[in-house]
Design brief:
Layout (H helix, E strand, L loop, with lengths): L1 E3 L1 H10 L4 H13 L5 H7 L4 E3 L2 E6 L4 E8 L4 E9 H5 L5
Parallel strand pairs: 1-5
Antiparallel strand pairs: 2-3, 3-4, 4-5
Helix pairs in contact: 1-2
Length: 94
């Protein structure tokens, strides 16, 4: 997959240094993945959730959430939002 928004990823890492290594692991795994559907995403990240047109990933043991939009046909992943689980629960990702 081609993961877009590398600058956004760096911003997430700078804002949340305790999650930096986990974000980079997610990024590398997403780049080498070949997802054709959400079921394929679950083979890579079994705790991902699909909410509307976004896929929500647990980062750093679920302390953080990463929201992404995935175009399976074009093999693109677009980062949309990153924050704590508490911020996610408050709906800040929408």
């Amino acid at each position: 997959m081609k993961v877009l928004n590398p600058r956004r990823r760096k911003e997430y890492e700078a804002a949340h240094p305790d999650a930096s290594a986990s974000i980079r692991v997610w990024w590398r795994q997403a780049q080498i993945a070949d997802w054709g559907s959400f079921n394929d995403v679950l083979k890579t990240f079994n705790n991902a959730d699909q909410v509307g047109n976004r896929v929500i990933f647990n980062i750093r043991g679920g302390y953080y959430r990463l929201s992404a939009w995935i175009d399976y046909d074009r093999k693109l992943v677009v980062l949309k939002w990153f924050g704590t689980h508490a911020e996610y629960d408050r709906g800040e990702w929408q």
